[in-house]
Design brief:
Layout (H helix, E strand, L loop, with lengths): L9 H5 L25 H8 L1 H12 L2 E6 L2 E6 L2 H8 L8 H9 L12 H11 L5 H25 L4 H17 L5 H18 L11 H25 L5 H7 L10 H8 L10
Antiparallel strand pairs: 1-2
Helix pairs in contact: 2-3, 7-8, 9-10, 10-11, 10-12
Length: 276
């Protein structure tokens, strides 16, 4: 994807959904196959990501091909190959097109699903809420809760560290990022965050109730409604939480996020394990 030329307005950006870029399978025919058939490759990747990467590297080398999430994909496993992608500064690689098949419906229009000038403009609008003084305030707000929670872990003797760390991360996100402390609201947000992130790892993307992916889409709708309901009060009387700062903030040109953009940008940063 070519980088966008010139300045892109908010309304233009909203009309530019992230495309899911996928080459035809024949375009990857010169690459060695990863060794996993369709569907089973998704399961292998999700079951043991590190083991999957090491196995593919041993069988097929640093660059191979696979049919992931029902789409032809090139797999880059070496540090040099990853550097080509992650270090791209010339707009030769589309983050939006790469992430769209996995996160496009669950985290639509988030920063990672924007490219070029659109990405740069939205990132610039976020900077006032992420300056050093703001981050120091967030850290000071988190430190007492982290200390008391870790002390409780030590007293407990034995615990599921993964689950305990996940719970602490969600508690911190609810407080520092969203500024909510009502126990019922926090519990509801935790439940929906969990279902949303769980859906991002679904192999079968069925948009129907009771499926893993369908539950995630429903959780996304509930989260969007909760965040949208918070915006008027946060604009009128901003607090110290990050969401308030994004609601009230403006960049150097006086541009602010609209309500839809605030919702789109907020939850990838409040969801543990999320990538956008």
């Amino acid at each position: 994807m070519r980088p966008y030329a010139g300045r892109v307005t908010t309304s233009q950006a909203d009309r530019m959904p992230a495309p899911a870029i996928a080459p035809p399978w024949s375009a990857l025919a010169h690459l060695p196959h990863c060794g996993h058939p369709p569907v089973l490759v998704d399961l292998a990747l999700l079951r043991d990501t590190l083991g999957f990467a090491r196995g593919v590297m041993a069988r097929a080398g640093p660059v191979s091909r696979a049919m992931l999430v029902g789409r032809p994909q090139a797999l880059l496993m070496s540090a040099d190959a990853a550097d080509v992608i992650l270090g791209d500064t010339r707009g030769r690689v589309s983050a939006a097109g790469g992430w769209a098949p996995f996160l496009g419906e669950l985290f639509p229009r988030g920063l990672i699903l924007r490219d070029g000038a659109v990405h740069r403009e939205h990132r610039r609008r976020m900077l006032p809420a992420l300056r050093r003084d703001a981050l120091e305030r967030h850290l000071a707000r988190m430190a007492p809760r982290i200390a008391s929670t870790v002390a409780a872990w030590r007293r407990a003797g034995r615990l599921d560290l993964h689950e305990a760390a996940r719970r602490l991360t969600l508690d911190l996100a609810s407080d520092v990022f969203l500024g909510i402390d009502n126990p019922a609201e926090v519990a509801a947000a935790h439940h929906d965050f969990d279902q949303l992130v769980d859906a991002s790892a679904a192999v079968l993307r069925w948009r129907v109730p009771l499926t893993r992916y369908g539950r995630g889409l429903a959780a996304r709708r509930r989260l969007a409604a909760r965040l949208a309901a918070l915006i008027p009060a946060r604009r009128a009387a901003p607090g110290d939480d990050l969401f308030s700062q994004l609601c009230a903030g403006r960049d150097d040109d006086g541009q602010a996020f609209d309500d839809g953009e605030l919702v789109d940008h907020r939850w990838p940063r409040t969801t543990p394990r999320a990538a956008p």
